[in-house]
Write a structure and sequence with these properties.
The complex is a heterodimer of chains A (313) and B (380). With 313 residues, chain A is α/β, with parallel strands linked by helices. Helix content of chain A is 56%, strand content 14%. The radius of gyration of chain A is 22 Å and the shape is elongated. Chain B has one domain: Rossmann fold (3-Layer(aba) Sandwich). The chains are: A alpha/beta (313), B alpha/beta (380).
C-alpha cells in the first residue's frame, strides 16, 4: 500500500501546483465521477477548483449538494466553480476571447462563408476547446486547478495534437501565436498534468496503456493512474467447490451471486496486476478506487471517492 | 433476455436493411455488438461487411483474423456460414491516400496534393478526419461493393454525433460557395454580379487572413486549387452518404448499458438522432445485471448456511462464508435493481418492442464466447 500512499501524495501535489488537470481514459470508466472527486479533494486542500465539463448531458450534479454546470463559469457547490462547455460553441467563445477585437470576431461569425469554413475545418474546434481551457486556467489557475473531464481516448489525443496541427498549417497570425502558447502550457509539467483513468477490465487497461504511450510521445506530462471500480472477492478463503455445492441447494441464488462477483473480482485482480506491472516499468504510481455498490446519490458517491483520494479506507 | 417481439423486430432489421449503424457511448460493447450483428445476419445467409473504427486488436483475434485494416478480410467460414462477413478497420490517413489514389489518376497532380501541407495535416495530424473518412468508406462500401448488409461501428457518442453530422459538414466544406472564394480565378471575363460576389469573397479572405495568418490563406488557395474538381466528387459523396443515412433501408442501433449514466447518454443520443431525423430502430442494453436476489428480502444468516454446507462444513469458516454470501447478494441485488430501473426507462424511450437485453456474463468465457453469448442473448 506504500505505492497507494505515494500516488495519493502525487495527486495532491498535482492538484495544489498545476493549473490544468486533464482527466482522460476509455469511455465508461468513470472519468466524470473521478473528476468530481478530484474537485472535492482539491477543495479539501484549501483550493478553489474549476470543473470543466465537455458536452455533459443534462444530469443531476455529481457534486454533493451541487447544481449542474451551465454555459458560463459559476459556483456549482461551495468553493467549486464549474462550466459545461458545448463543443459547438467553443469556436465562437474562443474567438471572442482571443481575437484582437470583438468586431473581427463577430465579422468572422456573421460571415456565412467563414462560419461554415471554421466549423468544417478539422481540428479548429479542438483547438478552440483547449484554448478555452487555457484561458480559464490563466484566469482561475492561481486559486485552484481547472479539472477537465475529457471525452473518450481518441478525443483526448486530438485535443492534445490540435495546437501542433494548427501551427503546421498556420505559420503566422493570432491563432498561430495562441496555438504555440497552448502547446507550451499543455506540455509544461509545472502547469499541466494528465490523469488517466481505467476500469480493471481488459480493454480499458489496454487502451489506457496505449493512450499513455501516445501521450508520452506527444510530450504530455503524465500523472498517476487511477484505477476505478476495483472489486474484491467477497469470500476469498472459500473454495470454488463449496460455492458450486451451495449453488445446488437452498442458497443457490446467493451462491450464484457470490460466484458472479468472484469472477468479476478475479478479472479485476488480474487486470490490476497487469496494469501495475506495466506501470512499474515506467515508475508510475497507481491509485485504486473501490467499486461502490450502494444505491447512493451521485454526490454522495463522489464524496466517498474523494475521501479515498484523501486516504480514508 | 429480450422479449419475443423485440427479437422478431431485430430479425426483421437484419433481414431487410442494407445498412446498420451501431451508435452509443464508449465502453458499452458497441464494436462487439456490431460484429455480432454482422455474424448473425451472415448465419441467416446474408453477405455482410463490418466496418469498425475501434483498433481493438482483441476483436480481430476473436473474429479469427490476424489484423484488421483498410482491406476487407473474410471471417472464418465456420463462424458465419452459410453467409459471409468481411471485416475491416478504418485507418484514416491511409484511407484518404487510397481515395485520392482512386480519384486522381494523374500521378503528378496526385503527388502535388500529397505534398501540400494542408493535405498532410488534414490526412495525418488533425482530429475529425475519421468522420469524413467513415462517411467516404461507407459510400464506397454501399455503392461500389455488392454487400447485402453493411454494419458500421461508430466512434463513442460525442464523436458519433460528429459522424452523423459529417455528410452535411463535408457538403458544406466542399460547397461551391466556399471553395469558389478560395480557388484561383482564371476567368477574367466575369460579369458585374460575379465581380461583386468575388469582392465579398475577398473580404471574407482578408478577415480569415487576419485571424489565421496570410500564409495559411495562400496555402489554402493552393490546396483548394490542387483539389480542383475533387470537391464536386467529395460533395457528391457527402450528399449521397447523407441520403443513405436517412434511407428507409438504414437502421440505427443504439448500444447502451442499463446504468443511470449510460441510460442518460442513450436518451441524449436518441434525441439527437430524432433531431437529425434519423431513426433509432433498435436499442441494445448490454451487460445488464440480473439476479433473482433483486427481490430477496431475507438477510442470510449462519443458520441458513450451516445446514446447506453438508460435507463441506469442516472446510470453511462459517462466519466468513455467511458474510460473503450476504455481501454478494446485496451487491448483485443493488446492481440488478439499478439496471431494472434503467431498462424501464429505456423501454419508455424505445418502446418495449425495440429493446434488446443482453445480460452480463457471470463466467469467464473468452472472446469468442462473448460474441456467441451476445448473439444468443440477442436472438433468443
Amino acid at each position: 500500500m506504500r505505492s497507494e500512499r505515494t500516488a495519493r501524495a502525487q495527486l495532491d501535489e498535482i492538484l495544489v501546483s498545476r493549473q490544468i488537470v486533464m482527466v482522460t481514459g476509455k469511455g465508461g470508466v468513470g472519468k466524470s465521477i473521478v473528476s468530481a472527486a478530484l474537485a472535492l479533494r482539491a477543495r479539501e486542500l484549501g483550493l478553489r477548483p474549476l470543473l470543466f465539463e465537455l458536452d455533459a448531458p443534462p444530469r443531476t450534479s455529481l457534486l454533493p449538494d451541487g447544481k449542474p454546470a451551465g454555459d458560463d463559469v459559476e459556483e456549482l457547490a461551495p468553493g467549486i466553480l464549474g462550466i459545461n462547455q458545448r463543443s459547438e460553441d467553443a469556436i465562437r467563445d474562443y474567438a471572442i476571447s482571443t481575437l484582437p477585437s470583438r468586431t473581427v470576431a463577430e465579422l468572422l461569425f456573421e460571415n456565412r462563408v467563414s462560419k461554415l469554413f471554421l466549423r468544417a475545418s478539422p481540428s479548429v474546434s479542438e483547438m478552440a476547446l483547449v484554448g478555452r481551457v487555457a484561458i480559464l486556467a490563466e484566469k482561475h489557475g492561481a486559486d485552484g486547478p481547472v479539472i477537465v473531464d475529457l471525452h473518450a481516448t481518441g478525443h483526448a489525443l486530438s485535443l492534445v495534437q490540435a495546437p501542433a496541427g494548427i501551427m503546421k498549417v498556420l505559420r503566422g497570425g493570432v491563432l498561430h501565436e495562441r496555438a504555440r502558447r497552448i502547446e507550451e502550457i499543455l506540455s509544461d509539467p509545472q502547469r499541466t498534468a494528465f490523469i488517466t483513468v481505467a476500469l480493471p477490465e481488459e480493454l480499458p487497461v489496454t487502451e489506457l496503456l496505449e493512450l499513455r504511450a501516445r501521450l508520452r510521445e506527444l510530450r504530455a506530462p503524465l500523472g498517476p493512474v487511477v484505477l476505478n471500480g476495483v472489486i474484491d472477492d467477497p469470500a476469498p478463503l472459500v473454495a470454488d467447490e463449496v460455492v458450486a455445492h451451495l449453488e445446488t441447494g437452498a442458497l443457490k441464488h446467493a451462491a450464484h451471486d457470490l460466484r458472479a462477483l468472484r469472477t468479476w473480482a478475479r478479472r479485476a485482480a488480474r487486470e490490476s496486476e497487469r496494469l501495475k506491472a506495466a506501470l512499474a516499468q515506467e515508475g508510475t504510481e497507481l491509485l485504486t478506487l473501490p467499486f461502490i455498490h450502494d444505491e447512493l446519490k451521485p454526490g454522495a458517491l463522489a464524496g466517498l471517492l474523494a475521501a479515498r483520494l484523501g486516504g480514508a479506507s | 433476455m429480450s422479449e419475443r417481439p423485440a427479437v422478431l423486430h431485430l430479425e426483421q432489421v437484419l433481414q431487410d436493411c442494407k445498412l446498420v449503424v451501431a451508435v452509443g457511448s464508449g465502453g458499452v460493447g458497441k464494436t462487439t455488438t456490431a460484429a455480432a450483428l454482422a455474424i448473425a445476419a451472415a448465419r441467416r445467409g446474408r453477405r455482410c461487411a463490418v466496418l469498425t473504427i475501434d483498433p481493438a486488436r482483441r476483436l480481430a483475434q476473436a473474429l479469427g483474423v490476424s489484423r484488421l485494416g483498410n482491406e476487407p478480410q473474410a471471417l472464418d467460414t465456420a463462424l458465419v456460414a452459410p453467409g459471409a462477413v468481411d471485416a475491416m478497420m478504418l485507418e484514416a490517413p491511409e484511407a484518404l491516400d487510397l481515395l485520392i489514389g482512386r480519384l486522381v489518376p494523374d500521378p503528378a497532380r496526385r503527388e502535388r496534393l500529397y505534398q501540400n501541407r494542408l493535405y498532410q495535416v488534414i490526412a495525418r495530424h488533425l482530429g475529425g478526419t475519421h468522420e469524413y473518412m467513415a462517411v467516404e468508406r461507407l459510400y464506397s462500401l454501399v455503392k461500389e461493393h455488392d454487400y447485402d448488409l453493411v454494419v458500421l461501428d461508430t466512434p463513442p457518442t460525442v464523436n458519433a454525433l460528429d459522424f452523423l453530422d459529417a455528410p452535411t459538414r463535408i457538403a458544406a466544406f466542399f460547397s461551391d460557395k466556399i471553395t469558389r472564394f478560395f480557388q484561383r480565378k482564371h476567368d477574367e471575363n466575369r460579369g458585374l454580379i460575379q465581380r461583386i460576389r468575388d469582392r465579398a469573397g475577398e473580404v471574407a479572405i482578408q478577415v480569415l487572413g487576419k485571424a489565421l495568418g496570410e500564409d495559411f490563406i495562400e496555402e489554402l488557395i493552393d490546396f483548394v486549387t490542387a483539389f480542383g474538381g475533387l470537391f464536386a466528387a467529395f460533395q457528391e459523396r457527402g450528399l449521397v452518404a447523407e441520403k443513405l443515412l436517412r434511407d428507409a433501408s438504414t437502421a440505427f442501433v443504439v448500444v447502451t448499458g442499463a446504468d443511470p449514466v449510460r441510460v442518460a447518454e442513450a436518451e441524449q443520443l436518441a434525441k439527437t438522432l430524432g433531431r437529425l431525423d434519423l431513426d433509432a430502430r433498435c436499442f441494445v442494453a448490454n451487460r445488464v445485471h440480473q439476479s433473482p436476489s433483486a427481490d430477496a428480502r431475507v438477510h442470510i444468516t449462519a443458520d441458513d448456511v450451516a445446514p446447506a454446507l453438508a460435507g463441506f462444513a469442516s472446510q470453511v469458516d462459517l462466519e466468513a462464508l455467511t458474510a460473503g454470501l450476504a455481501h454478494a447478494q446485496a451487491v448483485r441485488a443493488s446492481l440488478a435493481r439499478r439496471d431494472r430501473a434503467g431498462l424501464a426507462r429505456l423501454a419508455e424511450l424505445s418502446g418495449k418492442k425495440r429493446l434488446l437485453v443482453v445480460p452480463e456474463l457471470d463466467d469467464e468465457v473468452g472472446d469468442r464466447g462473448a460474441i456467441d453469448h451476445l448473439i444468443d442473448a440477442l436472438f433468443s
